Each structure stands twice: as C-alpha cells, then as structure tokens.
Amino acid sequence: MSQPFYITTPIYYVNAEPHLGHAYTTIVADVASRFHRLAGDEVRFQTGTDEHGDKIAQAAQERGVTPQQYADQISGKFRHLWPELHITNDKFIRTTDADHKQVVTSILQKVYDAGDIYFAKYGGHYCVGCERFLTEHEMVDGKCPDHGTVPVYQEEENYFFRMSNYTSELKAHIEAHPDFIRPERYKNEVLAMLEQGLEDLCISRPKTRLTWGIDLPFDPNYVTYVWFDALINYLTGLGWPDGDNMAKFWPGAQHLIAKDILKPHAIFWPTMLMSLARAEGRPAQEYLYQHLNVHGYWNVDQAKMSKSLGNVVRPLELAEIYGVEAFRYFLMREMSFGLDSNFSEQAMVERYNADLANDLGNLFSRVLTLLHKFRGGVVPQGIIPSSEEEDWPLPEGTIHAGVHPDDVSPGSPLWISPGQLHFMAAERTYAYENEIRAFAFHEGLRWVWQIISATNKFVVIHAPWSLAKDPQKATELDQVLFTLTQLLADIAVLIWPVMPETAEKMAGVLGLHSIAPGMLEKIKANEPLLPVGTQTHQPPALFPRIDTKKVQAKAAKAEQKADTKPAPQAAEEPTEISIEQFGQVKLKVATVLAAERIPKADKILKLTLDAGEDEPRTVVAGVAQHYTPEELVGMQVVIVANLKPAKLRGITSQGMVLAAVGQDGLCVVSPSKPTPPGSQVR
Ligand code: ME8
User: Structure pTM?
Assistant: First the structure.
C-alpha cells in the first residue's frame, strides 16, 4: 500500500564547505527517497542550511563580510553540490527564509503563552562548536569531547524552555515505540540520558552578545537560540501549521542524522513538539515524528576528519575521479548504518574493481554479448517456471531441484536451474526491501550482490557457448538467455536507488524504457520485466577497471612524505624526573574490544580499545609475536592516553599499550582486578 514518506537531512551549518560526511547523509536520504518512489510511495525529501548563531557570525566576521553575505555564499555551495551527486531533494530550506522566521516566531509565542518558557539567570559551560551549554557530565577533562576545546563559562539572564517537564513522557514514548530512535544503540544512549534527568533548555541569546538570529516575539532584547530555530525547519518545510503537505507527510516523518547531533534531535526536538501539542490542546502523538535514523561517523584513513589534519574529503573531487555512481555505491555499501566507518581511497578502488567492474560490469557485458552473438540481441522465448513446472534437463553428476536458494552461494558446486535463479531473485528482493526500509543499506546491497554472483555462476554452469554448438539444445539456449536478460533487468531496478544513472543506462540498453514504480512488485511476483522479442543494444562498459597499482603508488608517496618529516632530536636520557613530569603522562585502563592482524606486518596488531571515552580508540601494539588476537580480546590493558598519534602501516595509532619486557618475551601490563575502562593509572 502506498504511504507518504517524508525524509529530512540535518540542515548543515554554513561555516564550512560540504564534505564527505554531509554528502553521505544526503546520499542516504536520496537512496531512501528513490527506494520509496520505486515502491510507489509519495515522497518528500528536504535538506537545507542552518544559518543563524554564533558560529556563522564568527566565521563571517573573520572574513570581513556580513553574516547574510557569508550564509548566501556557503548555502549556495551546498545547494549546487546536490544535483552533481544525483540528489533529488524536493525542498532546500534556509533558516534565513522569511516563512521559516515566521514559523519560529509563531511556535515560540504559542509555547510561551502556554507557560513552557520562563526567564531566569543561568551560568554554564558554553561550547561554540556545539552551540550549546554542556553539562558537567558531558565534558571530558574539562573539555568538549567533540571539539577538544574548553567551553567558556557564561552567566547571564535568559529564557528557558521547560524541557525537564517532559522527561517521563518522552521516556514512555521511546519505550512504547522501540524503533522511534534507531539503530537500537542510539535509543539506549538516549534512555541513559533521560535516566540522568533533563535540565531545562536555554533558548535565547541576549542581543548584547549575538544579533544574528530570529528575534524572540516576547522580548526584543533577545534572539532565539540556534537549535530551537533550526529544528523547526522540519515543520516549516511542510507549510506548518496547515499546509496540505503537513497533514499528508508529517505522520510519516523520518529524520536522518549522524550521532553528533543525537541529543538535539532525540531530546530537544520531541520535547519541543510535545510542548507545541500541549499548547494546541492536541495529543503529543500527533506531533511526534515517526523515526529518528542515526548513522555513525566517517573517519578518513583511521583519523577523525579535520582541517588541521588536512584529511577533509571533498565529495566532488572523488566523484570526478571515480564517477558519482561508484562514489554513492561505495558509501552505501561500506558503512554499516549506525556504526563508524573508515574511508580510504584504496578501499574504494578495491570495492570498485571487485563489485562494480568484475561482478556487475562483467555480467552485463557478458550476457549482452552472448545475446547478440547467438540471438541477434533479441530477448528469446522463455518462461519463469514455478518449481513444480520446471523440468530442466540435468547434466550428469549434478544435484537438481529441491536445492534451497540459500545453498547456492558463489563458489558452491550446486546446480542452479532457471526457475531457481528467478525464485532466488524474488526472495532476495523481499530481503533487500526489508533492509532498505529499515535503513540497513549495506545489507540491502549485499542481497543484490548475491543475485549478481548467482547470475554470474548461472552463466558458467549453463555455458551458452556450448549449448549454441548443439542445434538440439536451441530451446535450452533460448531459456538460458531469456533468464539471464530478465535477471539483468531485475538487477537494474534493484540498484536504481543507489546508482540511478547506471541503472537507467542498463535499462536503456535492455530496451526497458524506464525504471518505474511497480517493477519491484513484478520481481517479487516472478514476473518478467522484458517482453519476449525485445530488441536490446550493444552493451557499453559500465565500470572500466581501475589500475590499483597507480592508486597504491599515490598512497605510498603520501605516506612517505609524512614519514620523512625530520625526527625530533633524541634528548639525553634523564636519570630522574619530577612528579610533575610524570603527571604529564596520562595512563588509563582500557579493555580490548577487538584485535586484528595487519597484512604484511608480523610484529604488530591493530587493537580497538574501550578507554571509557565516547568512541573506541585504535592503538597499534607490537605484541603480535607474543599474543594471538583472540588472547587479547576482553583483556584489560594500560595505555598512554595522551601520546601524540602516529601513523604505522597506514593506521593512525592513538596511544601506546604498556608491556613489561622480560627474558621470556613481552608481557602486557594489566590491572590485577577488573577495573572500569578509562580509570586513571597513577
Ligand atoms: O550539526 N561522518 O550541522 P553540521 C558522517 N546545523 N556524517 C557527518 C560527518 C562525518 N564525519 N560530519 C558531518 C549541524 N556529518 C546543525 C544541524 S539540524 C536541525 C541542525 C553530517 O553542518 C551528519 O549528518 O555540523 C551530521 O549529523 C551533520 O553532517 C552535521 O552537520
């Protein structure tokens, strides 16, 4: 049944140019939108830019332009990038749009009139990077864990939103709707925050400090706090309060964000919506969004992307080298939605060659070349048999029907009949659909690649070139080529949300006019997409192979450059150090979450450690000749936590594991009793 689907990305700050992270979120939203269009749903997809607040005012000031000029310039960069990445948003919203200002003003007034906003004095630790006050609990060693900066203590009179009043109502909603926030790990994180209790939210900034914002309707001396302003964009874009789109799309609203802005979306926003519902005398359920979908962070070459590390990935540069389609595919296939992922050009090239050039590209050109060679490029007579109807001749020594499609894994010696291949494609399409609906894109693509592998195997098993030699086998050859061509059409439909241009190119060559709603249903129902007699065209090379040697050489050169930086002079070894000097070394307990061998390195292991921090750390340790990875997992170790990161074999090591060097070899230092990760060692 067709359902309206409303998806939003965060509105991005205009203090920095678009990078890999922004591109990923927006591509995910595009893939989800395209999938829902393909499934016949009515879709609305919104993205945009967040333009008020301290950060933008500061960035504009540094460049000597007005905040509006600066916002216009950077917002334009985002707006122009999206079509280049084949993004099909229906709306691009800016928080400086007049209608948005109007909506924010009106919601503020309603919430104020209903008694949920009050005036009070407050002192707190303000992080400009986060644009919010951090609680003591959130700070690590007195710093913002996300920005590594010391928040500024500020005391002033401000307006506050009674967020704390909604703590139990929000908790009850999350518990009653387990997929309100997904994947589950983020739901648990939010429940833990609620468990600690909520403070009220400061929602104003005095104009003496900041003028770049929307005026509070009930006090002209203040502007609205940027998050209260920004979150409301999701309603403005639908024409709140009574645009047609509001009634149609808001009940199915889905937000998409990365983990960095979980708290504003999972706590500020739903409590704001609950308050708005209360102010209007409506049940909160009518205003709460349907799902918050949270993904992890992209790191680059194992390190956090940052200007200072010079590793910020610009989406267009990659798209220019590898093509937009391959770039979109890589991002969707590589990241397990919800977890962090590492970006490297090397990995991208490997996936490109394996999945796109070898599996998909070869299959496409191979099948069409055979079809042209033996049947003039015309889809021959054939059927999609049900398993009962199928009476396919058995080659000697093979196992026949009754084989479950799950057993037909690439490389297995099992036989696949045409009926089984079609049946498998239908089954995998159901699985693909479920995964994409649940935002598990990498899993969805895995199912599609199983179809591609099985089809490649089908070519080898049935060897059309041998069938063609025997005139008695003409009907068999027809059926094999019919099945293969239908499978190419199925695959084109399934990859369309991720690689629309490639899919349309494939469809055009196959004589399928367009990829349209209803096709997914046909594949699931085992109905052919291509009528018998369809004339196909000669296949173009979809994904020419990339020379990995060239990419490796480029990476080696970059690494060499980094390694040849002059080494610091070895200082004369002091015999004694002061307690202050020792105090500079931060030692911490950490638990080994994972340990992996590193190809072509027999002395070192890559360890993933829980050091009681927001994210696990990667540390490269020279213990491979003394411990197996399995022995280390679960073990507690002591690390030097403030050692300058160093790159070893292309991996950035964020610390050092302590070990005693005895006569019998090396022995990792471990606390004598289980100790919470992150505990200091003194
Ligand atoms: O937070 N990996 O804007 P922002 C994955 N204006 N995704 C990343 C990423 C990375 N390394 N870096 C950024 C804001 N992103 C607010 C939002 S919404 C009402 C206001 C993506 O420009 C990801 O989607 O800092 C993340 O949540 C977002 O960019 C943050 O964008």
Answer: 0.79
The residues annotated with a catalytic role in the active site are 19, 22, 127, 130, 144, 147, 304, 307
Tell me how far apart the alpha carbons of residues 550 and 443 are, in angstroms, rounded to a whole number: 31
User: Alpha-carbon distance 445 to 329, whole Å?
Assistant: 9
More confident site: 483 or 614: 483
Number of H helices, E strands in the chain: 24, 26
- Joined tokens for residue 146: 């996300």
CB-ligand 1 contact for 313 (6 Å cutoff)? no
Average pLDDT over residues 128-149: 85
Sequential DSSP letters for 411-455: T------HHHHHHHHHHHHHHHHHHHHTT-HHHHHHHHHHHHHHH
231 Cβ inside 6 Å of ligand 1: yes
The phi and psi torsions of 617 (rounded to 5 degrees) equal -100, 150
In angstroms, the CA 463 to CA 81 distance is 45
Q: How far is the CA of 611 from the centre of ligand 1 (A)?
A: 25
pLDDT of residue 209: 87
Distance CA 37, CA 5 (A): 9
Model confidence at 359, pLDDT cuts 50, 70, 90, reads: very high
Helix (H) or strand (E) holding 189: helix 184-195
CA of 480 relative to ligand 1 center, distance in Å: 49
Are 327 and 343 contacting, i.e. CB atoms less than 8 angstroms apart? no
The alpha carbon of residue 644 and the mean position of all alpha carbons in its chain are separated, in whole angstroms, by: 29
For residues 413-424, average pLDDT: 80
Burial 304-334 (b: 16+ CB within 10 A, else e): bbeeeeebebebeebbeebbbbbbbbbbbbb
Phi (first) and psi of residue 208, to 5 degrees: -65, -25
Ligand 1 and 50: CB distance under 6 A: yes
What are the tens digits of pLDDT across the range 501-553? 999 999 999 999 899 999 999 999 999 999 999 999 999 999 999 987 777 77
- Is residue 280 predicted with pLDDT exceeding 70? yes
Tokens of 121: 């004095």
Kindly report the average pLDDT of the chain as a whole number. Answer: 89
Query: DSSP label at 503?
Result: H
Q: Which of 27, 260, 295, 341 to mutate to test the pocket of ligand 1 (most atoms within 8 A of CB)?
A: 260
pLDDT attached to residue 6: 98
Distance of CA 52 to the CA centre of its chain: 26
User: What's the distance, Cα to Cα, between the start and end of the chain in Å?
Assistant: 63
Q: What is the mean pLDDT of residues 391-398?
A: 50
User: pLDDT tens across 173-183, in order?
Assistant: 999 999 999 99
Residue of minimum CA distance from atom 31 in ligand 1: 12
